[in-house]
Write a structure and sequence with these properties.
The protein has about 350 residues and is an alpha/beta fold. It has a single domain, classed as Aldolase class I (TIM Barrel, Alpha-Beta Barrel), CATH 3.20.20. Helices cover about 30% and strands about 15% of the residues. The chain contains ten helices and 14 strands. The strands form two sheets. It has a twelve-stranded mixed sheet. A two-stranded antiparallel ribbon has the order 7-8. Helix 1 crosses helix 9, helix 2 packs parallel to helix 3 and helix 3 packs parallel to helix 5. The protein is globular, with a radius of gyration of 19 Å. Bound molecules: S-adenosylmethionine (SAM) and iron/sulfur cluster (SF4).
């Protein structure tokens, strides 16, 4: 139960609860946003909960809520409470830009959600504002503080590394020295942008997809080499690998490091340079009810149609079909029909 045709145990479901967002990150959404789905196309919370219960019956035990920005959907706290009450769910996590955490962190913890990933690509207010097209760094930092104060653990920070942004990676390493936060540097992925004009006017080819270009992709080995050199020059000591057993409990494929004496850790996630499909443990449900078996594949199963016109047995069969059709690995394809905000990361 919960095993795909390549013997991988699939126990993790990422649920996108909305395609809407209160920010417009340059690598995720166009400035004007994407055309929102009609409200009737978006799964109701009840439909999501019905799907989750069926997925649990097929081996899922961990759920992460994402979006768009999951905290902009009204009623999210009660949704968390109901999901948490499904027998067989071991934990619920959220990936958020953090802006609304000061409002919701405590309520989410009360409802049974403790694990949080906050996306934050720069600790420089002006870089943060340009990456998010107008977001305030102080809002995201207040979100991280609120997560700690509410008792969320682990608190992780996701940083997408984009070469042309020239991010100060060491400032994040400094953050891990001071507080028990786990910063994960994520390789910029060519998701979305299929068929859209790329910067410079060319259309998507092997090296571009919408805003993504191969030049902007920074392989994780380079990220680690940079942190090692800059950390040592700054007197942080030698960056050391963290053994798997000591790494912050994760559901994903990060490799962790730490500077001596640091309260937190530094992780790298390398979907492109060292792809980890052999360890993939997840399915994704989009806000409009499509079940995706791979982030990079546009092959989707129509869970919404089954939720609205099928039986509980049909729903179980759909999840089993997803497990059976999950590809062995992604094909390094550049560009997908949906943008990241429409898939959920
Ligand atoms: N709004 C929430 C947030 O930003 O955390 C949740 C949704 S967002 C789509 C989920 C994650 O995907 C974020 O950490 C974001 O930085 C990441 N992401 C978006 N586009 C990406 C890309 N092209 N490559 C790598 N990560 C990306
Ligand atoms: Fe919104 Fe998250 Fe996409 Fe940024 S990465 S635009 S916060 S969905």
């Amino acid at each position: 139960m919960g095993t795909d045709s390549f013997g991988r145990r699939i126990d993790y479901l990422r649920i996108s609860v909305t395609d809407r967002c209160n920010l417009r990150c340059i690598y995720c959404m166009p400035p004007e946003g994407v055309p929102w789905r009609d409200p009737e196309d978006i799964l109701t919370f009840e439909e999501i909960e019905t799907f989750a219960a069926a997925a649990v019956g097929e081996g899922i035990s961990k759920i992460r809520l994402t979006g768009g920005e999951p905290l902009v959907r009204l009623g999210i706290v009660e949704h968390v409470r109901r999901l948490r009450a499904i027998t067989g769910i071991e934990a619920i996590a959220i990936t958020t830009n953090g802006v609304l955490l000061p409002k919701y962190a405590r309520q989410l913890v009360d409802a049974g959600l403790t694990r949080v990933n906050v996306s934050l690509d720069s600790l420089d207010p002006s870089v943060y504002s340009s990456v998010t097209r107008g977001g305030k760094l102080s809002d995201a930092l207040a979100g991280i503080d609120a997560a700690f104060e509410a008792g969320m653990r682990p608190v992780k920070v996701n940083v997408v590394v984009v070469r042309s942004l020239d991010q100060d990676l060491l400032s994040f390493a400094e953050m891990t020295r001071l507080r028990p936060v786990h910063v994960r540097f994520i390789e910029y992925m060519p998701v979305g942008g299929e068929g859209e004009p790329a910067p410079g006017g060319a259309c998507s080819s092997d090296t571009t997809a919408g805003a993504w270009t191969i030049e902007d992709h920074v392989p994780s080995d380079e990220i680690v080499a940079r942190l090692t050199a800059e950390g040592s020059a700054a007197g942080f000591g030698e960056l050391e690998a963290v053994a798997r057993g000591d790494a912050p409990g994760g559901w994903g494929p990060a490799t962790y490091y730490r500077f001596p004496g640091a309260a937190g850790t530094i992780g790298v996630i390398s979907p492109l340079s060292h792809h980890f499909c052999g360890e993939c443990n997840r399915l994704r449900l989009t806000a409009d009810g499509k079940l995706r078996t791979c982030l990079f594949s546009d092959d989707e199963l129509d869970a919404r149609a089954v939720l609205r016109g099928g039986t509980e047995a049909d729903l179980h069969a759909l999840v089993r079909e997803a497990l059976a059709s999950k590809p062995e690995s992604h094909n390094m394809r550049v560009g997908t029909l949906r943008r990241m905000s429409q898939i959920g990361g």
